[in-house]
Specification:
The complex is a heterodimer of chains A (114) and B (113). By secondary structure, chain A is an all-beta fold. Chain A is built from no helices and eleven strands. In chain A, the strands form two sheets. In chain A, strands 2, 4, 5, 6, 9, 10 and 11 form a seven-stranded mixed beta sheet that branches. In chain A, strands 1-3-8-7 form a four-stranded antiparallel beta sheet, with no helix packed on it.
Amino acid sequence: DTAVSQTPKYLVTQMGNDKSIKCEQNLGHDTMYWYKQDSKKFLKIMFSYNNKELIINETVPNRFSPKSPDKAHLNLHINSLELGDSAVYFCASSHRPGRGYGYTFGSGTRLTVV
Amino acid sequence: KNEVEQSPQNLTAQEGEFITINCSYSVGISALHWLQQHPGGGIVSLFMLSSGKKKHGRLIATINIQEKHSSLHITASHPRDSAVYICAVPPEYSGGGADGLTFGKGTHLIIQP
């Protein structure tokens, strides 16, 4: 029944490793997003993906790459993990950006790089 | 780029008090979102509003589009209302850039029994 589901919920890994976080939505939404929440709880957009169009926030390092096998999935792959990547990552979806459409968030993935 | 300012950043109140959290933004928008995040928890959408006022239980959200300002009120606050409250604005229909929400820095609310 979960509308936007992320896995895993917790991820602890060593520096330099490559890891992926999976996200799936069953709402039929057109657009999916990845957000990063830092230690001060501040949220920032990383990517949006709409109808196979990827829009990237220019501040995101190219070690981060979203992959969308279909409209219902947007996975986040991270190469060569660094200590500063430790954060909570939220997936979300909406029908369309802006124009008064609601957003639904996943429960978050807490990534700890040691 | 829309700048979103929230106040206060931190708020501690006693159970039963009336709570107000404010949010202002710099660029006109179609709608504004209020979100709630409990400690260690996910993000829940409380309201999306484009004009006037919305009410859900003890929560009331208002918006003044002309003044680019919104408020979230909690009546008869309860310890279970303790959470981070975040206002967010969507991208305007302009294309370009990552089309996600722009968030305020959040208000950490603690309601003491």
